[in-house]
Each structure stands twice: as structure tokens, then as C-alpha cells.
Amino acid sequence: MPFVTTLDGLIAEKPEMVIEAASHDAVREFARPLLKQGIPVMILSGGALCDDELRAKLEAAAAKYKALLYVPSGGIGGLDALKAVCVAGADSVEIAVTKPPAAWKGIPYVDKMKLDLDHLAGPVTLFEGTAREGVPYFPANVNIAAALSMAGIGFDRTRLKVVADPALIYNTHYINIRGKTGTISIKVESVPFPDNPKTAMLACYSALASFKQFNSPVRYGT
Ligand SMILES: NC(=O)c1ccc[n+]([C@@H]2O[C@H](COP(=O)([O-])OP(=O)(O)OC[C@H]3O[C@@H](n4cnc5c(N)ncnc54)[C@H](O)[C@@H]3O)[C@@H](O)[C@H]2O)c1
């Protein structure tokens, strides 16, 4: 596949699938035109889909043009179990996204809090509320909360807590699910990708694993 820099150039190459790993803006700009060409799209910047109007448009395009719209589990896990809980009846879904303070630098919502992120004495909660409210505040940092919301009980019922914790070395996420089938608690401690420490290694391999099973007639576990 040659290097291309335009949407038309990308479409002309007739890709088997396009994996978005860029930004919310890129989802807004590229996902729908690609789906309309019948090209499957995998979205890593799932927080963009907190916008109901955009998500509805992409879902409609996927259905109309028979192109897969796919959001992988990315930097978390357990979405298979969450979906099963939802079929039986889910009562609550919560995620706490906890990262070392440096990970929260340069985010306008956090900057407004005027915290000295280099010298926090202990964990500080930056946000607590619905995923609907919180996801847009952190466009590049809580896409996992969006994936969790969409796989589960939606942005309005999924609870999100965002924490800066100076004791952490790795980004660490806690998921709690309660429903008719019981309770599920998951802790994900995430090693950064060596070439790009902003990104979780798990997220990269989640995209790769999803791509590997894309055309498979047999699927185990998902
Ligand atoms: N779902 C998950 O679990 C998960 C995990 C990690 C990262 N992400 C998301 O994946 C995306 C990529 O992460 P990253 O750490 O590689 O980011 P990055 O900033 O290191 O790289 C993104 C690249 O995309 C390019 N880009 C951004 N917007 C673009 C646009 N509109 N058109 C063309 N190119 C554009 C940038 O120039 C940059 O080269 C981010 O949105 C991030 O939040 C999701």
C-alpha cells in the first residue's frame, strides 16, 4: 500500500479496511466518506462517537453501504463479557481512568483547574460523572470510556472517573460491571508503546488482533 495523504488517494487504493489512529477530527473527516465507498473503518478515536449525530450518520452509512464500522476494545478488555451482561440486564458500568499526572498536561479542561501536575502530593480526581459529559473533555485520553459506553449501556449511564496519580508508573484502568449475571471487576495496567509512549501497547495490538479476525469465518471469544 503506497503512502497517501488525501481521502481521494486513499479511496483510489481500494483498501481492504482503514484503521483510524489519528484524532476525533479525523473520524469526523474521513469515516463517513470511506463507509460510503463500502470501505470498512476501524475507529480507535472512539470518543468522537460520543456525538450522537455523527454516530447515527456513520451507523446509517455502514448499514446502507454494507461496510463494517468497528470500534475495538483498544486499551481495555472485557467488552465481550459486558455485552453478555447487557443482554441479561446490566445495572451499572463504571470506569476509572488513572494515569500519572504528566499524561494530563496540555488538556484545556485540566489546565483550567490550575493544578501543579509536577508536584501532586497524592491522587487528584479530575472528573467524575457520566461518560457523556466527561469524554469530550479529554479528546485523546479516554477513548476507552467511549468504547465501554458503546459496547454497554451508553454514554449517559456509563460512569467515568478520571484521576491523576503521582504514585503510578503505568496507566491503570479499573472497570466495574454489575448486572443480573453478577459482578465483573477488571484492572488493566498498561505498558506504553515504546515508539509512542502516549499510546497503550494493548490498544495497538487490539487493532491488529481485530484486523486479523476481520475476514475470518471462525471467531473465538469475541
Ligand atoms: N481506543 C483506544 O484504546 C486508544 C488507545 C490509544 C490511542 N487512541 C487514540 O488513537 C488516536 C491516535 O493516538 P496516538 O497516540 O497514535 O496519537 P498521535 O498524536 O501520536 O498520532 C496521531 C497522528 O495522526 C495525525 N492526525 C491527527 N488528526 C489528523 C487528521 N484529521 N488528518 C490526518 N492526520 C491526522 C497526527 O498528525 C499524528 O501524526 C488518538 O485519537 C488517541 O486518542 C485510542
Describe the protein in words.
- With 222 residues, the chain is of the alpha/beta class.
- It has 2 domains: 65 residues, NAD(P)-binding Rossmann-like Domain (Rossmann fold); 117 residues, Dihydrodipicolinate Reductase, domain 2, CATH 3.30.360.10.
- The strands form 3 sheets. The protein has a 5-stranded mixed β-sheet with strand order 5-6-4-7-8.
- Strand 2, helix 3 and strand 3 form a beta-alpha-beta unit.
- Helix 2 runs parallel beside helix 3.
- It is globular and about 55 Å long.
- It starts with 6 loop residues before the first helix and ends in a 10-residue tail after the last helix.
List keywords for this structure.
single chain; 222 residues; Rossmann fold; Dihydrodipicolinate Reductase, domain 2; 3-stranded parallel sheet; 10 strands; 32% helix; globular; binds nicotinamide-adenine-dinucleotide
Radius of gyration: 18 Å
Assembly classification? single chain
Bound molecules: nicotinamide-adenine-dinucleotide
Instruction: Outline the low-pLDDT stretches.
Output: none
Largest sheet: 5 strands, mixed
Enumerate how many helices there are, as a single number.
Answer: 8
- CATH class label of the largest domain: Alpha Beta
Helix fraction bin:
25-40%
- Work out the strand percent: 25-35%
Element-by-element helix/strand order: HEHEHEHEHEHHEEEEEH
Strand order of the largest sheet: 5-6-4-7-8
- Per CATH, the superfamily of the largest domain is Dihydrodipicolinate Reductase, domain 2
Shape: globular
Kindly state the number of beta strands. 10
Tell me the structural class.
alpha/beta
Per the CATH scheme, the topology name of the largest domain is Dihydrodipicolinate Reductase, domain 2
Distance between the termini: 28 Å
In round numbers, the mean pLDDT is 96
